[in-house]
UniProtKB/TrEMBL annotation:
Protein name, UniProt field: Uncharacterized protein
Segments for region (Disordered): 1-23, 577-621
Domain CUB: 6-119
Record domain F5/8 type C: where: 215-372
One term of GO molecular function: signaling receptor activity
Disulphide bridges: 6-33
InterPro entries found in the cross-reference section: CUB_dom, FA58C, Galactose-bd-like_sf, LCCL, LCCL_sf, Neuropilin_MCO_CoagFactor, Sperma_CUB_dom_sf
Keyword flag Metal-binding: no
Species this protein is from: Mycteria americana (Wood stork)
Positions of the LCCL domain: 121-217
Signal peptide span: none
PROSITE patterns, per the entry: CUB, FA58C_1, FA58C_3, LCCL
Single GO cellular component term: plasma membrane
SMART domains: CUB, FA58C, LCCL
Phylogenetic lineage: Eukaryota, Metazoa, Chordata, Craniata, Vertebrata
Length: 637
């Protein structure tokens, strides 16, 4: 049978891809092709129909596709446009299938695209499967060999990801996840799309620049980190002298990919040029990235070979998955772009050498390697059968133990019972700690919250089993202004507030002044300083209240002595006769060298009087609340 109708064909023992001639264009007239597919013994074949577009006719007489198993005598088809396969994946029970394609005169039709794999890969997909065909977040499929040269667009690059409209298997080859010669399992995730997908050239494929998409495809590739290069070495390097007479060294150290400026360049006219990278120790190398000189110089390498060594002396060329010929990698197409190529299978070596095969104007190169550390494989220990040790039985104790009545221990449930007991005990301890913490917090907040002070007519009211101190109340301005400063120097707010006995309630006079009392009045808005007319009157600088009670269990009681009507002091105010001078009174002077109890030395100026020097009201050192003689007066002579 003629084979002029065969198109792209790549057949391997585990997977492959085939198509009609000119696919996806119109297949030619009067052509035929036959493919024989074989799987390893013990396996069967799976056929994935990517596209079957043959011109329809009665019983597919003009163009047809037929699948036959000569050994079993079974056949599938014929297929054409009006008789397509029922499912996109055909499962056969044979390890060998013959594919027959023929065409006569026709006007239209793209032809056929068919892929296959063994029964070990039930998740086989065709080369035309796209990311938009899936809805789950994580996708794992098996891509057949030969999808690289099948027509299909991809947008993006390995670092950014790919647009979800890209064909899966071709994008996987571009990302370096699988080799087109072998195919393989692909794992990817569908994530949120980005605004712009940049193009890149990698593994012989050029992707397109794409716009915003709903989802993007991220291929999961193990062992793809940048490797650190310990040293660079080269066959030669170019020593340039520019037009101004300045020297520029294109040394091997300039070959690092991240180096700014010019790159490494070989000496002009040198033969067998190479660039060597020393990784310091053996690494698992899975890919290489190359770049030209720079934008200022238009030097770059278009193709190269790679060899590796473990000791730097014996070199082994890289031959790829085929293993027959040295693989030639596609290099750069300009001096500033980066090109990636994957090593499948990876290289395990310390030294990697790049040998340029073709270049533009001059051999100039920047290189970076990707991979990971070499996994350490521990040698398995030889199996030594364990011999049970004999446990000596003490002779001083009886061999049998007396069982405890009512207790039965199950050895299988002992572990679970102990775990339950530990959990219960831990829960009890946790609850106890929480209760104790709550009690302590409540106890700290309780004294400040339960204090209650009641004031009835300007006097503190003591609740049962409570002591209310005036220090807990904010002192108003009237109270702060009425405290004396002469008898007790310092800040009275920092002294201890004394406790006073509870007085009987005293009716308030009509002139809003409380009656005479020996108890310290509360700060009240109606309390005011007495009016002072004469300097012998009660000084208005201090309040009239008794000193704090002594610590003995004796308490002072209120007292009031009857005074003559002519000598009673009117708290509401004292007015003098018009035209008459104010009367002067003689006050008994204290004994020489002795002051009454609780009196302080005079601080102010003294004025001359009838009975001697009399202290002025502003400088009085003995006040009404401190000196017991200040309430004794004499009639004027």
């Amino acid at each position: 049978m003629p084979r002029d109708g065969c198109g792209h064909t790549l057949l391997t023992p585990h997977s492959g891809t085939l198509s009609s001639k000119n696919y996806p264009g119109t297949y030619p007239n009067h052509t035929a092709c036959r493919w024989r597919l074989r799987a390893p013994p013990g396996t069967s074949l799976l056929l994935a129909f990517g596209d079957v577009d043959l011109e329809p006719s009665e019983r597919c007489a003009r163009s047809s596709l037929l699948l036959a198993d000569p050994q079993a005598g079974t056949a599938y088809g014929p297929y054409c446009r009006n008789a397509v396969p029922a499912t996109p994946l055909l499962v056969t029970n044979s390890s060998a299938v013959t594919v027959l394609f023929n065409s006569t005169s026709h006007r239209s039709g793209r032809g056929l695209l068919l892929s296959y794999a063994t029964s070990q890969h039930p998740d086989l997909v065709s080369c035309l499967a796209r990311g938009t065909h899936y809805t789950q977040e994580y996708v794992s499929v098996y891509c057949p060999a030969g999808c690289k040269d099948i027509d299909g667009d991809i947008w993006g690059n390995p670092s950014q990801g790919y647009r979800d409209t890209s064909v899966l298997c071709k994008a996987a080859v571009h990302a370096g996840v699988i080799a087109d010669e072998l195919g393989g399992q692909v794992t990817l995730s569908r994530e949120k799309g980005i605004t712009l997908y940049e193009s890149a050239f990698a593994n012989g494929l050029h992707s397109k620049r794409g716009s915003l998409s709903e989802k993007r495809l991220i291929f999961h590739r193990a062992c793809g980190d940048a490797l650190e290069v310990a040293a660079f070495n080269a066959s030669s390097w170019w020593h340039e002298v520019d037009a101004l007479g300045q020297d520029r060294a294109w040394a091997a150290e300039r070959a690092a990919l991240g180096t700014a400026g010019h790159s490494w360049a070989a000496e002009p006219g040198s033969e067998a040029t190479w660039l060597e990278l020393d990784l310091g120790t053996r690494r698992n190398v899975t890919g290489i990235i190359t770049k030209g000189s720079s934008e200022q110089y238009d030097y770059y390498v278009t193709s190269y070979r790679v060899s590796s060594s473990r000791d730097g002396k014996n070199w082994r060329p890289y031959r790829g998955s085929g293993g027959q010929e040295d693989k030639v990698f596609e290099g750069n197409a300009d001096s500033h772009g980066e090109v990636s190529n994957a090593f499948i299978p990876p290289i395990v070596a310390r030294y990697v050498r790049v040998t340029p095969q073709s270049w533009h104007q001059r051999v100039a190169l920047k290189v970076a390697l990707v991979g990971c550390q070499l996994a350490r494989v521990r040698a398995p220990r030889p199996y030594v059968p364990s011999v049970p040790k004999e446990v000596p039985v003490p002779t001083s104790h009886p061999a049998s133990h007396t069982p405890i009545p009512g207790v039965a221990l199950d050895s299988e449930k002992a572990g679970s019972t102990l775990l339950v007991m530990l959990l219960i005990g831990g829960f009890v301890l946790f609850c106890s700690s929480l209760l104790l913490l709550a009690f302590l917090c409540r106890r700290k907040r309780k004294p400040a919250a339960e204090l209650n002070c009641g004031i009835t007519k300007g006097y503190p009211k003591l609740e049962p089993s409570q002591v209310c101190s005036l220090q807990s109340l904010p002192p108003p301005d009237s109270l702060l202004a009425s405290f004396p400063t002469a008898a007790a120097p310092g800040d009275l707010s920092r002294t201890h507030s004394p406790e006073y006995a509870e007085p009987d309630l005293v009716p308030v006079s009509p002139c809003t002044q409380a009656g005479p009392s020996t108890f310290k009045p509360l700060p009240d808005e109606g309390y005011a300083l007495p009016l002072v007319v004469s300097h012998y009157d009660v000084p208005g600088k201090y309040h009239e209240y008794a000193e704090p009670l002594p610590p003995e269990p004796e308490y002072a009681t209120p007292f009031s002595e009857p005074e003559p009507a002519g000598t009673r002091w009117n708290p509401c105010g004292i007015t003098g006769l018009p035209g008459s001078p104010p009367a002067r009174y003689d006050a008994p002077a204290p004994r020489p060298g002795e002051l009454p109890a609780g009196c302080a030395a005079p601080r102010g100026e003294r004025t001359a009087g009838a009975g001697g020097d009399v202290p002025s009201p502003e400088g009085a050192g003995c006040q009404l609340r401190d000196c017991p003689l200040s309430h004794v007066y004499h009639e004027a002579l």
